[in-house]
Amino acid sequence: MAVHRYTEAPHEQRNDFGNIKRIIPYIWQYKGRVLIALASLMLAKLATVGVPLVLKDIVDALDKDLSTATLPLMLLLAYGALRAGNSLFNELRDAIFARVRYGAMRKLSHQVIQHLYSLSLRFHLERQTGGISRDLERGTNSVSSILNYLVFNILPTAAEFTLVAIILLGKYEIVFTIVTFSTVAIYVAFTIMVTNWRMHYRHKMNRLDSQANSMALDGLINYETVKYFNNEQLEVSRYDSTLTDWENAAVKSQTSMSLLNFGQGFIIAIGVTLIMIYATQGVLKGSMSLGDLVLVNTMMLQLFMPLGFLGIIYRMLRHSLADMDLLFKLMDTQNEIKDRPGAKAIEIHQGAVEFDHVSFHYKDDRAILKDINFHIPAGHKVAVVGPSGAGKSTLSRLLYRFYDVIEGSIRVDGQDLRDVTQDSLRRTIGIVPQDTVLFNDTIYHNIAYAREGATRDEVEHAARLANIHDFIEGLPDKYETIVGERGLKLSGGEKQRVAIARVILKSPPLLIFDEATSSLDSQTEKQINQALRDVAEKRTTLVIAHRLSTIVDADNIIVLQDGRIEEQGTHQQLLERGGLYAEMWALQQEEQQLEKEDHIGAI
Asked: Which end of the chain is more exposed for a tag (fewer CB within 10 A), N or C?
């Protein structure tokens, strides 16, 4: 089955305009605030453009014989009012739009995380957590940045440019408008051309940054494995090698940015100089007053100052669009396992499970399960054993519907798993996995995680059944003990017992024990097995087992080999048959005898 894998999209595959359209619904839910913010923006720009107009009148009022000049008080008050109004409306725009910007950012982050949880197990097994977390962070921040650039920089600059153009066309010779428009056109064309040329450095920086972050996070998560093989220097070297490539790309990015900045400054300098030359000639000819010279100069400075900053904004906008594209590519990743239209919640009457001629493969070139056919009557315990790689754990993943079968079907009380909602199915199944991973939180949180709203008495009762309550009470912080990243502060057996307590608290009608006692010593294993038998009583139970001693009481034992059912029956029946199960049993009995002899010898 072909599955779309999340990868960084090349620049040419991006749809920036489409991505911008996709963020509109996130901001339009605050349309009242958006309209008020835009009105404030226009008022602020009217005040900004009004300043040089009033300044011109002030200069013209003073440009006469000082003995006859009077204080232009009203003009000065108007000048101050426009300055204050500009500041007031700018800050009002920022304050009103803050809710829009951060609200959109929060909602998008919520939807992305929700989407990640909805994706299939295959996606999460193939992903690089560190890289995705960095892309998620940059992507959600990019939405805020893009809104910030549009509302606080691009739209205000466009509004101011329009107002200035109207004034120039209405009051002065056409040459001023031509010079202004030409300068802006050359500036924009140069900025786009150079920015597009240097964008690949930014893409490379992003890719290497995510790669380095993934390496660091992966190494730290697997800290113990790194230590086991003395590979600290290897991990640091790999990390530094990637950062070296990132450094080189960053230097090239900064160098090209300096070239772009100089070119932009040079274009603006030429434009302002030409404007001042024509304005000065107009004053000498008498066609323009000294106030007109001040007006034109002030307007050009007001226009080109944000235009100079607009170059940086354009680059940052392109960077943000690249980051946002990665985020939307992630959101567009299709879920492999979907509920069918009209799927209903599963109804558990008795809890019978049936694998009906099931075949499955992860990849087309390697079959994992071949024509698996067996039945678990309600309330019965069925165990699956076999060599490593026989497909035992795949059965539990299919029952939990992390994957869909390729051929055949799996039914619970006659209901095909593909016809019921995934949420309702998983609420009916409790699983103790082979590799228990805990949250970096308290022991209490990790047990109570099984059932929201569980009381403390219920949590402690589950811990007692899992034979871990006394251990927890012996810790300094008791149930408030932090277990560490992935539960590293607990031993394998302690983590396994927390997982067993968790599934006891969930109390589902269907149970899966995927080598649930694999990390326990023999003494603890006996105690836990009794607890497992108690919790599994009157529940339909599928046990994936490595230690055959843990499943001798199973109602039926299925022996898998190379993805097929080799044999099945009760423990005694399989021993009498003298097949693969009998060989495995004899081998394990011999290993246990050797362990006992070694233990006695050590004493």
From this structure: C
pLDDT value at 444 more than 90: yes
pLDDT of 65: 53
Higher pLDDT, 159 or 402: 402
Whether residue 424 is found in the same domain as residue 369:
yes
Structural domain count, the chain: 3
pLDDT digits (tens, 9 = 90+) for 8-46: 444 446 777 778 888 888 888 888 998 998 889 889 888
Q: Using the structure block, give the residue that is written with the tokens 């190494």.
A: 219
**167, part of any domain:** yes
- Rounded Cα gap, residues 456 and 444, in angstroms: 8
Residue of 373, 340, 335 lying closest to 354 (CA atoms)? 373
Burial track 105-128 (b if 16+ CB lie within 10 A, e otherwise): bebbbeebeeebeebbebbeeebb
- The Cα 259–Cα 79 span in angstroms is 38
In this prediction, residue 546 carries a pLDDT of 82
Exposure string for 224-242, b = 16+ CB within 10 A, e = fewer:
eebeeeeeeeebeebbeeb
**Angle formed by the axes of helices 290-331 and 73-118, nearest 10°:** 10
Q: What share of the chain is helix, strand, coil (3-state, %, to 5)?
A: 65, 10, 25
Q: Are residues 306 and 207 located together in one domain of the fold?
A: yes
Of 562, 567, 598, 565, whose CA–CA distance to 583 is shortest?
Answer: 567
Same domain? For 185 and 103 the reply is yes
pTM of the model: 0.67
Whether 160 maps to a domain, the answer reads yes
Q: How is residue 399 written in tokens?
A: 């029952």
Spacing of C-alpha 125 from chain mean position: 15
Kindly state whether residues 477 and 419 are assigned to the same domain.
Answer: no
Range of the domain at 483: 438-504
Give, to the nearest 10 degrees, the angle between helix 290-331 and helix 31-62.
160
Question: According to the model, what pLDDT value does residue 486 have?
Answer: 64
Pair (199, 291) in one structural domain: yes
Residue type present at position 236: V
Q: Encode pLDDT of 568-577 as tens digits.
A: 999 999 999 9
The answer to whether residue 275 sits within a structural domain is yes
